[in-house]
Amino acid sequence: MHDKTARLTTDEYTQVAPVVRLVIALLVSAVAAGLAYAVSSLPLVTTGLQEAVAEQMAQSGVSHPVTAVLLNFRGYDTLLEMGVLLLALVGVWSLGSAPSSREPPPGAVLEFLTRFFAPLMILIAGYLLWAGAHAPGGAFQAGAVLGASGVLLLLSGWHLPASLAGWPLRLTLVAGLAVFAAVAAGVMWTGASLLEYPPQWAGGLILLIEAAATLSIGATLAALFLGGRPEDSP
User: How many domains, the chain?
Assistant: First the structure.
């Protein structure tokens, strides 16, 4: 009886599968056509919001327009992006603990490269964080480099100590979103709107947000690579 039911289910799936593929193909084609129409309808020459951004740069607290847009003028989007990144990690952790690694110990070459490049990548992340106020860089770029250094350590056989896998790791993961939200709400005590930084404090507040975000982004990316919730007990 079980085999007959299994064969029937397989036959039904064989009949339905072409219809499902056709529906998916039509949906993908419709989305692709919509995107193609949207791109083709864009004007060939446009200044966009460059002039509006340039007019407000003196109030932004930074001198690089990308950082000003991401952390000041369009702070709502960046705040939500931090939330989405943290939510993705929560989804991965909900699947269970990280798989135990059975990789052989790294060779002498990999161990040397890890010891050389990991500290160097941390320094580069710090530079990108600091340079973001006046040059290309910022929290996401610095966090990506910091996360890559964590991935390199994991690939070389490094394990997060059990003493750091509990609340210290979780505090680091939520620090970026928590600090961002705290600053966003805290400026309202001065009479400003949500995420409307006072011009005299804007530079320092943006640096504070980016510093916390860098740590959180780097830790989140490395934790996503780990593939599950790290054990917080030996």
Answer: 2
